[in-house]
Amino acid sequence: MSVDNASPATQGTVAPTSAGTPTTPHSPSTNSPATSAAHIDPDALATQVLAGTPATSEQGLAILRTADEDLLDIVAAAGRVRRKHFGMTVKVNYLVNLKSGLCPEDCGYCSQRLGSDTEILKYSWLSTKDATRQATFGMEGGAGRVCLVASGRGPSNRDIDRVGEITKSIKDSNPQLEVCACLGFLKDNQAERLKEYGVDAYNHNLNTAESNYEEICSTHTFEQRTDTVKKAKAGGLSPCSGLIVGMGESDEQVIEAIDSLRELDSDSIPVNFLIPFEGTPMEGVHHLTPQHSMRILAAVRFMCPDKELRIAGGREMHLRTLQPLSLHVANSLFLGDYLTSEGQDAIADLDMIVDGGFSILGQEDTKALRDQILASKNAHLAAVNGAQGGTEVGVAGGAAGSGLPCAGGAAGKPGAVPAGTSAEAAAGAAPTSGGCPKSRGEVPGTPTVPVIRRRGAGTDLPPNA
């Protein structure tokens, strides 16, 4: 996708549904800043929000339709709101995929979906020991919250006990660490039981607008998703619920989804940017520009000013070099890898925070933490490579193993880390964005195919943390 104001509709891109049937592109007038640039004073809007009146749906939509040349004004205004509620802190979250693959649901965006041909890691439940070890990696990398995720429609009561025991083990070792569970649809009283075990929050994303839901999934409804968020909140868990953008939804539907999230009073809102996995109906779908991705974050910030706003999966692919700038709007991120795909190197995440003048929530000295982790990685590489001469990892993504995950995703494809790669090779094998091949007419350096995760949970290799 060229870096301009063109929307998915103006480019004529067609988004497949969860069943793989293309849908009709939305009208350019609903989705294209180039054809319907809005006139809104972002500074005046920030003043309104800071005075206690969040942006209306109409104002949120106007933000989405502003022109690219107004982007820095939008970010500056949203940054005022972000700093009032969160200062210059960034909350770091870390994912632990407890159980991967073989999900019976047919969500069209998901690499773990029913019938997916994506060559992801598939494994049953991690042991309590392994899950605790993975969580500790995240904490040592600066995470204040670990997110325990398991594929499937929803947990059995036995699964609740299993996750509860993992939570107790994690908190015995790391009492200050928050635990968020993401296990699918909750039954009555399951949220209360998780709370008793020490779970702090529950994630269940709405993903898209109710008016768009049947286009991405046929095995459950939007109402079932909102019901689980309500159950979590009623059971004493902090509700974490967000969305996925870039699936062919209109700007109006983005705002509709944000409205639903604030109606549910979600404490934490992760914004995921579609990762177009091979082997899913949304393979090859690329609707977003970095600028529009930023506008979506700004709309969430203005409409939900005091909520944790997290840049989540797909940020490397869609925000690209605007990731550091996005932290002036968002106040939270996932460190390192995602459930089934690789993220950029954890050191690059920490570099963004340090170089932007931010600090990690709960850490006394973020720069010292970054430097300590960097020194530890270099010492490990030096010990492994010895006389063969390994490449030293550098600050600001300056060496192998740092930077963006690139095109590829299965063994033998450019940018992939093949299954069975040694821990030492995997630590230095992830290519930087500069090594990405030009593909599908996009600008050089743009990842177009996600790299499948082959390290961390479910493997013998150390995680990206």
Query: Sheet with the most strands?
Result: 10 strands, parallel
State mean pLDDT (0 to 100 scale): 83
DSSP helical segment count: 17
Question: How are helices and strands ordered from N to C?
Answer: HHHHHEHEHEHEHHEEHEHEHHEHEHH
- Which percent band covers the strand fraction? 5-15%
Characterise this structure.
- By secondary structure, the protein is of the alpha/beta class.
- It folds into two domains: 15-29 and 83-344, Aldolase class I (TIM Barrel); 366-440, no CATH class.
- Helices cover 36% and strands 10% of the residues.
- Strands 1, 2, 3, 4, 5, 6, 7, 8, 9 and 10 form a ten-stranded parallel beta sheet that branches.
- Helix 7 links the parallel strand 2 and strand 3 (178-182).
- Helix 3 runs parallel beside helix 5 (71-86) and helix 6 packs across helix 7 (157-173).
- The chain starts with 7 loop residues before the first helix and ends in a 38-residue tail after the last helix.
